[in-house]
Amino acid sequence: MSDTPDTPGVPEPPPEPPAETESGPKVGVDSWVASHEGRTQRGPLGWLAHGWESTPDWIKLLAFVAIAASLPYWLLRSEGDLFNFGLYTLLFVGFGLGLNVVVGYAGLLDLGYVAFLGIGSYTYALLSSPYYGIHWPAEAVIPIAMLAATIPAAILGFSARRLLGDYLAIVTLFFAEAFVVFTNVANPVLFGKGLTGGANGIPQVDPLTFFGYKISSTKQEYFFLIGAVAVVAGALYLANQSRTGRAWRASREDPLAAEVMSMPVNRLKILAFIFSSAVAGLFGAIFAAILTAAVSTQFGIPFLITIYAVIILGGLGSIAGVFVGAILINCTFVFLEPQTDHPGFKRWLFYGAIIVLVALLKPWYKAVVVFVGTIATGFVAHAVVQAWGGSAWTGGKTINGASWLSHWVIIPKTSHGNFDNILYIGLVVAMVVVMMLKGWWRIIALGPTLYLTAVVWENVLSENPGVTALILFGAMLVGLMIKRPQGLLGQARVEIV
Amino acid sequence: MHHLLVFNIIDQIRTLGWPGFWSLLRNGIVSGSLLALIALGYTMVYGILQLLNFAHGDIYMVGAFIGYGVLQAFGGAEMASFPIVPLIIIMFAVAMVGSGVLGVAIERVAYKPLRNAPRIAPLISALGVLFFLESSVQLLTNSAHVLYEGVYLGGNYPSTFGPLLNSVFTVDGIPFTTVDTLVVLAAVALMVMLVWLVYRTRFGKAMRAVAFDREAAAMMGIDVDRVISMTFFIGSVLAGAAGVMYGLYIGDTSFTLGFQYGLLAFTAAVVGGIGSIPGAMLGGLLVGLFQNFATGYVGGQWSDIVVFGILIGFLIIRPNGILGSKAIQKV
After folding, report:
1. Which of B132, B215, B219 is nearest residue A478 as measured by Cβ atoms?
2. Is the residue at B292 inside a domain?
3. What is the domain range of residue B68?
4. Phi, psi values for residue A374, rounded to 5°
5. Contact at 8 Å (CB) between A477 and B131?
6. How far apart are CA A368 and CA A363, in angstroms?
7. pLDDT at residue A8, rounded to an integer
8. Residues of A in contact with B146 (CB under 8 A)
9. pTM, 2 dp
C-alpha cells in the first residue's frame, strides 16, 4: 500500500461498491475470481475462450510457426507484402517480447526500451558494415550486441533500485531521449569518423551471415525471424514459469510484501532489465541487418509507443498477447500507409472496425438505434448541405472509388478555408461530450458523432495516413485503459485488500 | 574534438567572458521562469493524484497555438490599428482559458475512470493522450512551424508588435528586451497568485487536504472530484500562459514543442521535489540555468544530455528532490 498515505492502526474505510465503471479493481478477490466472468462466458465467444484456455501453450506456438511458415505460399505472395506484413509483424513480436519482460512480468514502466533496440542496432551496424571496414559474422556480432545492450540496462536497473514506479519511467524516458540526441546530434568522433554517423546513421549494413550462410532474401529473413521469435518466445515462457518468473510477478503485485518474503526485489528488477535488453539487443541487431542501416531517428518516441501499443493491446504479461498485438497493430499500420498495394482496404478496415464496435453494444436494440441514427444523420445532413450550399459542398469525390459514399458523406469539391480543421476539432469535442453523457443520451448522441467520424475520415484522416495512425494509437491506448486495462489476452489484475 | 571536453569548456568561458556570462544568466532566468510555470502543473497533479501527467507538456504547446490563433484572428502581428497591449492581454486570456478547459476535459475522459485502476493504467492512458494531442496538432497545422510574426526576436518584420517587445534597454551594459522582462514579470505574478490561492484560500486548503489524504478529505465533506478538476484547470492555465510567453519570447512554435519542454519541465519538477510547489519554481529556474549554461559553455548539442545527466544523478543521490518530503512506505 505505497500509493495512499494512510496511517497505520486506522482501519481502511469500507470500499465503495464499484460504480458503473468496470475498470476499478474488485476489492477482496483473487485473480481466479477476477477471470471467472470471462470463463463462464457463453455462446461462440465463450467456446472460443474455453478452447483457447484448454490448449497447451506449446501447441499454440507450434500452430503459430506452422501457419506463419505457410503464409508466403498463399497469403503473402508478393515480396512487398511479405516484407511489410510478414517481416515487420515478426519484428514487432520480437520487440514486444523483450518489452513484455520488464513491463508485463516485472511491472516496471521502462520508457527507455527503444534505446536498447538502438544500441543493438548500432552495435551490429558498426561491427558488420563498410563504415569502419569491419565485417564480422552474425554469430559473433549478435552476442556482442546483446551484451552491449545489457550493460546500460543493468546500470539503469541499478538506479531503479531506489526509484518507485513513476520516477523510473521518467529516468528511462530520459535515457531514450539522450540516446537519440547522442547518436543523432552529438556523434563523437572516433577513429577519424563520427561514431554514430549523425543524422544519416550507418548505411550499407551487411546481411546476417551465420557460419558463412548468408540470409539476404526477404523469404530467408522471414523464415529466420520465425525461428528466432519462436525460440525467444519459448525461452521467455520458460523463464516466466520458473521461480524467477513467479518472483517477478510477486514483486510486481506488491514489492513490499515480496521483500518481506525475503525475495531480492532489487536484484529481480535488474534481472528483468537485463533479460529485456538482451532480447532488445538481439532484435535490434536483426532489425539493422534487415533494414541494411541503423538510423537514430527510427528509435524515437513514436516507435516506443508503437511497441507499447503492441503489448498493451495483446495484454501485459501474456506472450500470446504479444503475437496478437503485433499482428493487429502492424497490419493496421501497413494498411494506413500512404503507398500501399491495397489502397481501398483501409476504408473497409475503418468502417468495419466501427461496425464491429457498435455491434458489440448490449443490448442489441441500442446498436440498432446507433446504426439508424448514424445513417439517418448522414442523409439529413447531406440533403441540408446540398440545399443550402449546392454541389460546391457535396460534389467532392472519395479517393479510390466507393463513389456511393459521396451521396452520404459531405465532401466539399474544393477546400473551404479551415473546414477540415473545424470538422476535426468538432469531432474531438463531440467525442468528449459523448463520453460524459450517460445512458440513453449517450446512445442518441453516438449516431451523429459516428457520422461526423465518417466525414472527418473521408475529408481529413484518410489523406494524412501517417498522422492518422498515431492519432488512432493515442485514442486506442486511452480507450483500452478505460474499457479493458488487461488487454485482449492479459489476465485481469486485482488488488487484494 | 581535438581537446578534452574540460579544456573546451574553459576556452568557452574565456571567450565569452563576463558579458557572455550575464546574457546566459539572463536567458537562463527567462526560460527558467517558463519551465517553472509548466513544472507547477506537473507537480500539482502529481501531488494530488500521484499521476505523472505526460500530456501536460502538450497542453502548453496547445496554449502556444491558441495564442497564435488569437493573433491571427486579429489580423496578425502586422496589423497596426489594434492596440498591442490589449491584444497581448486577450491572447493570454484566451490561451489560458482554452488550455484550462482542455486540461479538465483530459482529466474527465482519460484519468477519472481510472482512479482506482492499477498504477500503470493511468500512466499509459496519459501516454495515449500525449500522442493524441501531439498528432492532432500535427494534423491541424500540417506539421508546420508557425511564427508569431514580428515578435520574432531580432526579427526584421515591419510591425507594430515587434518594436515594442524587442526594444532593448541596458543595465550595466547587459542588454535586456521588453519581452524578457515581460516573461519574467508575468511568470512571477502568476506564481504569486498561485501561492496565494494554495496557501491562503479555502479552496487551497481543500486542495492540500485532498493531496494529503483523499479518502479522509472526502469524509470531511470536500468534493474531491471538483478539487481534482480545479487542480487540472489551474495547472493547465499556467501551462497555457507559458505557451503564449514562449510564443512571444522565441517567436515560433510547432507541434513537437510540447514533448521537449514537457521533459525539461518534468525534470524541473523532479529536481525541486515533486509535489512541492516552491520546489517546482526552484527546479524550473535551476533547469533553465543549467540548460543555458550548458548550451553556452559545452555546446548546444550536449545541453539536453547535460540536463538529463543531472536529473539522473540527482534522482539517484536524492530521490525526493531539493524541497520534497521523504516518501515513507507504510505497511
Report:
1. B132
2. no
3. 38-277
4. -60, -50
5. yes
6. 9
7. 45
8. none
9. 0.83
Which B positions 232-291 lie with beta carbon below 8 A of chain A?
259, 263, 266-267, 270
Q: Please, what sign has the CA dihedral across residues B167, B172, B174, B176?
A: negative
| Overall domain count for chain B | 1
> Chain B 21-50, CB below 8 Å of chain A: which residues?
46, 50
**Has residue B83 been placed in a domain?**
yes
Q: Which amino acid is at B279?
A: G
Q: Are residues A377 and A459 in the same domain?
A: yes
User: What is the per-residue pLDDT for B157?
Assistant: 42
Provide the residue range defining the domain that includes A360.
346-463
ipTM of predicted assembly, 2 dp = 0.81
Same domain, A311 and A397: no
Taking only the tens place, the pLDDT of each residue in A226-262 is 999 999 999 999 999 999 999 998 888 888 888 888 8
Longest dimension (CA), chain B: 67
Please, where are the H alpha helices in A298-390? 301-314, 319-336, 345-359, 364-389
Contact A189 B1 (CB under 8 A): yes
Identify whether the C-beta of residue A238 lies closer than 8 Å to the C-beta of residue A244.
Answer: no
Handedness of CA B126, B131, B137, B140 (dihedral sign): negative
- Per the CB < 8 A criterion, the answer to whether B181 and B28 are in contact is no
Q: Measured in Å, how far apart are chain B's first and last C-alpha atoms? A: 54
Residues in CB range of A168: below 8 A, 6 or more apart? A108, A109, A110, A160
- Give the domain-ending residue among A336, A366, A396: A336
Which whole number is the average pLDDT over B41-45? 90
How many independent structural domains does chain A possess? 2
